[in-house]
Amino acid sequence: MESKADRSTSGFDAVKWLVVFVLIAIGVVGNQYFNAESLLYRVLALVALALVAAFVALQTERGRRFATLLKEARVEIRKVVWPTRPELIQTTAIVVVFVLVVALMLWGMDSLISWLVSGVIG
């Protein structure tokens, strides 16, 4: 059952999300309205609005969960064992050769089927 504090937080979260969407709409409309201005100024304004919108979004419950997910993903990606350069080159060569072999096989089968169909059709 949802407590009174949870409902007020979710209601306040709805207001925060409304602010985020209004900021995005201001960015879109403002970019269109000020299209005669320098691209640099418009990009800087859009980046500033995006940063403010992201800050407001991170203050919501979903935003905090998303930030936690990003932190956990960063921890997990540090655990990844990346291949060495020779391993990378060898694996890439294997993939390229395999793709070429499959392409040649498909070309051969296509040519054979085309030859058979043209022989049957006449």
From TrEMBL:
<dbReference type="Pfam" id="PF00584">
    <property type="entry name" value="SecE"/>
</dbReference>
<feature type="transmembrane region" description="Helical">
    <location>
        <begin position="12"/>
        <end position="33"/>
    </location>
</feature>
<keyword id="KW-0812">Transmembrane</keyword>
<keyword id="KW-0811">Translocation</keyword>
<feature type="transmembrane region" description="Helical">
    <location>
        <begin position="39"/>
        <end position="58"/>
    </location>
</feature>
<keyword id="KW-1003">Cell membrane</keyword>
<feature type="transmembrane region" description="Helical">
    <location>
        <begin position="88"/>
        <end position="109"/>
    </location>
</feature>
<dbReference type="InterPro" id="IPR038379">
    <property type="entry name" value="SecE_sf"/>
</dbReference>
<dbReference type="InterPro" id="IPR001901">
    <property type="entry name" value="Translocase_SecE/Sec61-g"/>
</dbReference>
<keyword id="KW-0472">Membrane</keyword>
<keyword id="KW-1133">Transmembrane helix</keyword>
<keyword id="KW-0653">Protein transport</keyword>
<comment type="subunit">
    <text>Component of the Sec protein translocase complex. Heterotrimer consisting of SecY, SecE and SecG subunits. The heterotrimers can form oligomers, although 1 heterotrimer is thought to be able to translocate proteins. Interacts with the ribosome. Interacts with SecDF, and other proteins may be involved. Interacts with SecA.</text>
</comment>
<comment type="similarity">
    <text>Belongs to the SecE/SEC61-gamma family.</text>
</comment>
<comment type="function">
    <text>Essential subunit of the Sec protein translocation channel SecYEG. Clamps together the 2 halves of SecY. May contact the channel plug during translocation.</text>
</comment>
<dbReference type="InterPro" id="IPR005807">
    <property type="entry name" value="SecE_bac"/>
</dbReference>
<keyword id="KW-0813">Transport</keyword>
<protein>
    <recommendedName>
        <fullName>Protein translocase subunit SecE</fullName>
    </recommendedName>
</protein>
